[in-house]
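ok so for the tutorial part 2 we go from a plain amino acid sequence to predicted structure tokens. step 1 is just haveing the sequence, like this:
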Amino acid sequence: MPGNNVSLNLFATVLTYPAPTANYRGESELNRTVIQKVTDGRFEYPIISPEAMRNALREALRNYGLPSNRSRLEPVAGEGEQKQQLAVTYAEFPDPNRFIDDFLFGYLLAVKGKDLEKVRKERGKDFPLKRDSVLRMNLAKGLEPYRHDAVFTQSPQFKNTPWKEDRADTTSALLHRETAVTAFQYPFALAGVDCKGKPDWVRSLLRAIGELSDVAGNHARSYYEMAPASVSARLTPMLVTGHDTYHFRLDGRGPDNERRVGSSLLRDLLDDELNLPGDQFHLGGQLVRDLPTEVKSKLTAKNVSLEADPRRLLESVADKFLGDA
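step 2 — the prediction. this is what the tokens look like for a chain of 325 residues:
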């Protein structure tokens, strides 16, 4: 590893456990709820936006009791023809020195006119209207393609409810939900120079990634854990990860229909010609537990860190990444 005076950058990829998912959807088409997808080659793969995961991370950090500025507002009846929709509120002006979400996720104040004058008056002309996110994430992509599966549920007809007038044209509806059974993988990155100011907050962020759940979607009716089944991490002074960040692959099924998950990163680490610096790499979770003994020995000989528990791996990576900061 480089000396203590060299700032390290952390690049990691998380692979979740597979489970049925019908929640991370885009727009609705009549009574059909549609999973968001991206085309890769000949197939469409389910995806989850980084914004949905960041929102869940905010809530996890808030649940840890850490100071958070932004929170979601639940719909209320409102006044007149006011439309009820997704909304958030800030307790105070953004302050990355006081609030963990302002520090980690950044903010943007899109203000002008009287609103801009108010900001100048309250915080002065040098107050930054924008802060980039310390945490960089990309889309979570399903490990398996969407196969046009769907489930149907019945929405009941409401009668004699205090808030709705009974009408002859109100009927029950058949709800059509696109469904997939898959694991998701997603990369994230942290730059060492961005994290030195608040190392304890960064440790809490890595803990939250290890325990990530409640990612928004389907009105929170579906339970899908985004916590790692497997995780890979690289600590390097380079500004790029230097390998495929979506490196997990489904290599087929076993005799009991179990998924056999591989990784192109393993191939790269074992490639003597490529000669990646093994001491920069950390592997954890199911990926490590499924490795043949001879492969584990080769990786250990290259100084690759192996850990059976992905959360313990993230703790170990946090120690090396943040050091004595």
